[in-house]
Task: structure prediction
Amino acid sequence: MEILVCVKRVPDTSENEIEINSAGNDIERDDLVYSVNEWDNYAVEEAIQIVDKVGGSVTVVTVGDDESEEVLRREMAMGANNGILLSDDAFEGSDGKGIATILKAAVEKGNYDLIMTGAQADEGAAQVGGMLAAMLDYPYASLVNLIEAGDGKLKVGREIEGGNQEMNDIEMPCVLSIQTGINEPRYVGIRGIRKVASVEIPTMGASDLGVDAAAVGAGAAKVKRVDYFVPDMGEGAEMLEGSTEEIIAKLIEYLKAKGGLK
Amino acid sequence: MEPALISPAMFKLFGVIPTVLFSVMIPIVGVGLFTYIIARRMAPIVKANPDFRFDRPRQRILNVLKIWLGQYRHPRYMTAGVLHIIIFFGFLILSVRSSELVIKGISGGFIMPGLGGAVGDIYYFFKDYAATAVFFAVVVAAIRRGIVRPARYHYPESYGHDHTNEAVFVLVIIGTLMISESLYEACLVAAEVQKGLHAAFLAPLTLAWFFKIIFSNASSSTLQALHVIAYYVHDLTFFFFLCFLPMGKHFHVITSLFNVYFMRLERGNVRPVRYGVSDEELDDLESFGVKKFSDFTWKDILDFYTCADCGRCSDQCPANAVKRPLSPRFISLKGRDYAFSHFPLSGDFVAQEPLIGDIYSEDEIWSCTTCGACEQECPLGIEYINKIVDLRRGMVDEGNVPQSLQKPMSSLEKRGNPYGKMEKKRADWTKALEDCEVKILDKKTTAETLYFVDSVSSFDDRMQELAQATSKILFAAGIDFGILGKKEKDSGNEVKRFGEEMLFQDLKGQNTDAILDSGVKKIITSDPHAYNALKNEYSELPPVEHISQTIIKSVKSGRLRLTGVTEEEQAKVFTYHDPCYLGRHNSIYEDPRDAIDAIEGIRRVDMLKSRDRSFCCGGGGLMLFYEPEEEERMGVLRVKMAQEAGANVIVTACPFCLINMEDAIKVAGLEGKMEAIDLSELIAAHIEK
Result:
């Protein structure tokens, strides 16, 4: 099975103290450390496990600048066979639809049975997976937390609100957006990354992909961020005080009063 | 002069068959078989990875004299230890006699060279007592093993059946050897007495002496028969035993001498990824760590062979005590069984499956806190930490790392600390300090001494107080010191021990550069894990000192003056908990105690398990992130031990111990009854203004 996994380089929320910049339109990006978006990492692990079982290859792709290459290498150190960097000045400032347009072109350059994305990104809007499927006219399943590879189709489990589980058959080629917890992604250390340090990662721009530069980038973006701020602390928070026993007693009282405990 | 009895060398069975044939055949077959068995047993050792253990012969011989010949570690378990010492020395003494007997079966008059004269008289006198002592030791040991059954020999069901039968069987064999040897001699002496010949002197109250009395009136033919039968029972048992030794836990009778000779000499370090491969060449290695059996080094396999299943390691292991899925003795026994089954005595070697999953479980290998209690206890010099770390290296190399550890490891890679905090905030703890300036060293700001804070004391809210207390002490003692600030990275002590060697190398490189650039002449730290890493895993650094050493030196020189106990403290009893990386791994036991005692009027007691038998708090560094399966916390057990000792304040000298102790006090519900404090905090509170 030929699998393409779309990944994104994001500021690591667990390793950064996110602050708003002085202009108030973005976060402070000095001193940030980046990593691969957590959901995407689960998607790559799942792809590798599928290929380990049924054969084929895993390709990881990202839209970004030169620095995005590091996340491709990290995923290749995990076990992805190929990486493709989609980079062009024309791509800068793309909205979700723009990114999906670029990815669609990349998908069409290959011959993939399965396209995977993370369900969402740390700083994203959970929109690219669905749009990509629609543009490709492929079937789509979101929030996938279980995949069983079959002949020409897949059995996919989806997480439903309230902790319920749904199982679907889906025909390939298809697009799946992957939920965290579907597997336990393997660890990638410095050694793993060094092993793939010299592997060539092709870069493709708008012309390589046959993407109309006017259809992507900031100019084509129809969704624009106009403000970015930390919400004011709302009313209603109460700090419980006293000894541990007293705090527990009060908490139980509140939970009972609000119906959380019966 | 005609001898009182015909010796086995001259005897003819049924008057025709010369028994000397047996005397010749038994040793030939026995030695031949033994040589074959040992050759097969050598196979996994020959195929194993290298291990450099041929250096420093003087130190190694000293170890042999102390630990092997001196049986130094045995009395730590008094009953079993004394029994073992009796049997061990009995064996050593009787080995001469047994060898002599083998030749006596061929040449009746043979006497071991050197034993002809007075030396011989003394030897024969004592060897009878040795045999008797061994016999009674064996009887007591059999009762202990078979009837009393101490808990540490127990086998959990998951590990198969225990070795009681094997143990008792061997005890019977040893008893048989003692009886037959004594009977052989007693019959001869009884016959000599009967015939009025000059009889050899038998030491009173020995087995032989009793047998002589019992058989003093037996007929000459009975004595003759018993004499020859006893001889061949001894001869057969002796060679059977020799060939039986390499089949199980009594292999140690043969391997222990070598295992102790080759045992590790350094403490506090972890062996290289591959002997003979420098840190710079690590990138060229195809694979890291132990994934399959032949990735172990030859010393590991010698360790497996040598394990006597005495259970002392597991009895001391804190992970085992809280029912984590780790019991060090089974690391050895499973390794040995693997060697036996995959390198059988006959036929082809069996293909090797991966160790993790089939032989060792992931949780078993991650459960170890590397506290070193097992190695400290092993009377045979068996090692565990190196194997555990190598198995972890193998798992890390395969990407098989628990999710709970992946985040902190990735933060260490990106931010130099496991918490994912910003580098620039590493020195923020200094802001709360008043009247005590902490320099942040750079090109312009220099100092004589570096205070290496390490991650936990830099970033953990509570442990920052420990860094502040340390600074106050250094300041009060008039030491010109500074810190590296954002240039300091985690020391990586646990990074190495969790098998992430390349990340450790990276951290080590950054720290080494920063320290050497700072131009300091000396390093002081209040974190034993940092102390251990800088001292034992880094190279080319200035001398490293733990704050407890600095305190005691400064107090002795008068530069640091301490006030006596406060009224509140007068009512308290203090106990000192030895951190593993200060005590066992670096032998600093007395300085922290002396530092506490330097506070006039303080009452301090020691816990039953202290110094080199200290009980690990639960582990530091990355171990704080790991979520083990366990029934109880190690810290809770430790806090209860402090309570049993009659203490109500636990003083420790390690930030991780303090975290674990404070948590454990809460979990054990002892808030208000027990408190934990770091040595640096205690001393800082007693600085004379």
